[in-house]
Amino acid sequence: MAGKRKRKNGAERPGIHPRNKYADNTPDFGLLSSLYPSFEPYVFYSRDGRPKIDWTDFNATRELTRVLLLHDNGLNWWIPDGQLCPTVPNRSNYIHWIEDLLASDIIPATRADGDVTKGFDIGTGANCIYPLLGASILGWKFVGSDITDIAIEWANRNVNSNPHISDLIEIRRVDAEGTMYNVEELHNEGRFDSNSTNARDDGRASTVPEPHLGVKKSYNGPPILLGVVKDGESFDFCMCNPPFFETMEEAGLNPKTACGGTPEEMVCCGGEHAFITRIIEDSAKLKHTFRWYTSMVGRKFNLNILVSELWNVGATVVKTTEFVQGRTSRWGLAWSFLPPSRKIIPSHKIEKNNLSFMLEGLQRQHSAFHVLQSVESYLANGGVSCKLDAAAFNVDVTASKDQIDAIVKTETHNKSEAATCHHELNVSSSSSSSQPDALRFRISVFQQNPGTLLVRGTLHERASSIPGLFSLIFRHLEEVLTHKFHPGKVLAGVPSSNLEK
Ligand SMILES: C[S@@+](CC[C@H](N)C(=O)[O-])C[C@H]1O[C@@H](n2cnc3c(N)ncnc32)[C@H](O)[C@@H]1O
């Protein structure tokens, strides 16, 4: 598990956190089965004599988590059938990343010296994994919130089964009904972009059709931080493993593991983007109540959008990291509203001028030229000015901030809407080339070998008022082209309608 692994493009993949207990020693299933008879039935031996478990068996993964928490952390733990079962090494990485953030002097400590570090775990779940790990490994205090009866009941059970740390952890039920109206009122005082959330008469969020953009889904669930954090409270950090998905079908896409997970745990309206956007909105209200706000993000596409949202609401520092978990990657997003102790050059200000990705597994009928045409039609449908040079295999692009925002935010366009947008946005596109603050870049496509293309973006002129915009649109393009040309690889929910002609 330790060490760095290579990606296909040769870059190193981040490995397990060096302070993670499992960085140098992966769990020894043979040893654990000899020590814990309840684990033994789940362990079998492969031909080369290595002990294994069946990762698609929920009972096996739950028993592994139970024995690891007991053996390595002295924790008593259990969850009922079907609840989300955490993997200890993966969850520990997030804890150690927060430890790094707190130890760095980027944002100075706000609470008095000697105060025990205090965190807020949004959606602690029945498994209560982050408070249990944070309290047992690092002695941190926690408030763990949740909305479901089963999560509250089992999180409390898990805390009370560990009297040595139970004083450090408070499980807090989110009052879904009582606070909703006030929270929505706060959000509609005019502080936030009313494109994303409007209050109806009953105070609940509604989805608001945006001009030219179709319908953008916003979070309409119970309060998350605002209305849950009490007056006068302050925290060193918050953390969150959000409901990543919009539907259970999306959530069940990985048949290789059986980690359980009920709809309440896995799904929310608008998926992780909407959920984390609400955390961002709450944080912009609560500001210095937390030294660091953090969340896990499941899709890189969302990470890029969320980073932009954070700069828009005035975060002073934004940091990201990648957690590699077996074959999947997750990302960590952290931000603050406190003044940094030293001058930070935000990563968007040192934006790279060259970005690239590989498009693999292309079918024979799809040539580099088809990909180039798709790039052109995708951007042109968003009203952006494009010039395709078929001989040189590139497209020169000039775009305004509004046009790129519109492309990135578009979620659902049916064909007739797309046609209307095309027309309307093309009207504005004619002015984009004369706009002084425009983004100019070139997309080139190179054949690497049969079925594999390299797509490269080269930034020619950066729009001064639009930090991070080039990488945002380029990553979006990556997702859209992957969706079209290598659909097996796509993550659900990626907008593709602009390509469907
Ligand atoms: C993906 S699970 C994470 C559980 C656990 N923290 C983990 O990492 O395994 C998301 C959790 O968020 C909870 N949740 C959903 N909306 C919430 C809200 N508004 N406030 C607090 N918890 C919420 C769900 O009930 C669920 O337990």
TrEMBL record:
Residues 1-22, 191-212 are annotated as: Disordered. Its EC number is 2.1.1.-. It comes from the Eukaryota. InterPro entries: METTL16/PsiM (IPR017182), METTL16/RlmF (IPR010286), SAM-dependent_MTases_sf (IPR029063). Keywords: Methyltransferase, S-adenosyl-L-methionine, Transferase. The keyword Translocase does not apply. SUPFAM superfamilies: S-adenosyl-L-methionine-dependent methyltransferases. Belongs to the methyltransferase superfamily. METTL16/RlmF family. This is U6 small nuclear RNA (adenine-(43)-N(6))-methyltransferase. It comes from Rehmannia glutinosa.
